[in-house]
Amino acid sequence: MVSKLTKRARIALLSGLTLSATLLSPVALAELTGEVAATNDYRFRGVSQTAGDFAIQAGVDWSHDSGFFVGAWASNVDFDEEGYNGPDVELDIYAGYYGEINDDASYDVTLYRYNYIGSGGSDLGYFEITAGIDFVGFRAAYWYTNDYGGAGDDLHYAELNYGWEFAENWSLDLHYGYNFGDGIDDGEGFDSYSDYSVGVSTEVGGVSISAAYLMSDMSDDYIVDDGVWRNDDTFLVSVSYGF
Q: For residue 191, with 0-12 CB atoms within 10 Å meaning exposed, 13-18 middle and 19 or more buried, which class applies?
């Protein structure tokens, strides 16, 4: 989400400058970046947000050498069901802090606000906070909200990811996530599930391309293989361009 601190920023912090002095200094550097992407399905923790259809997504991120960053990200969504005409757009706004532990490890803390635009969308928005750590190719993160989907229910998500460059400009991408909490409790024994994926990614001419196979441990009774909230195993392809 946010790039590593530059060498100049690290030297400034090690030289004893206070955080406020770094923020106010006219020579402090900031960076504005963005990305546009297309994918054959927008999956959020294993569950489709576009009823299994394509998604166009875009984001912008402003990061400061002090470690603070803010940004916004948007995607089309499709939650329409019989008797319910849902929102058409998800707009996420976030702010956080990034820091380096050493040359091999870093951490970040981020607060998100998920907003949904369109019919019925105002009732679905909620805040979520996450904390993560990166270390030599691994990333572990924990997410929490006490108002999932605007319904006042808590939801937890823990994830572990690993990226390995097995050839020049090619990466093997592994993911495991565990969802649990009242937000997905159906009152009949289903209150948690795991999602995981295996994929590869590369970059060609400034365009990032990724392909992954997504799976979960949900039993057949809870698998949706078509339409809204689709959560069956699937092959996902994404193409993005950063600027």
A: middle
With 0-12 CB in 10 A as exposed, 13-18 as middle and 19+ as buried, what is 46?
buried
Burial of residue 104 (number of CB atoms within 10 Å: 0-12, 13-18, 19+): exposed
H/E element, 34 = strand 30-39
Q: Does residue 231 register a pLDDT over 70?
A: yes
What sign has the CA pseudo-torsion 193, 185, 42, 37?
negative
218 near 230, Cβ under 8 Å?
Answer: no
**Among residues of the chain, what percentage have pLDDT more than 70?**
88
Q: C-alpha angle 96/45/189, rounded to 5°?
A: 120
- C-alpha 4/C-alpha 41 separation (Å) is 30
Tell me the helices (H) and strands (E) count for the chain, helix number first: 2, 14
Residue 11: per-residue pLDDT: 28
pLDDT category at 18 given cuts 50, 70, 90 is very low
Report yes or no: 127 and 144 within 8 Å, Cβ to Cβ.
no
Domains of the chain as residue ranges with CATH: 7-242 (2.40.160.40)
Q: Is 80 in a helix, a strand, or coil?
A: coil
Enter the pTM of the model: 0.86
Do residues 28 and 65 touch, judged by C-beta distance below 8 A? Answer: yes
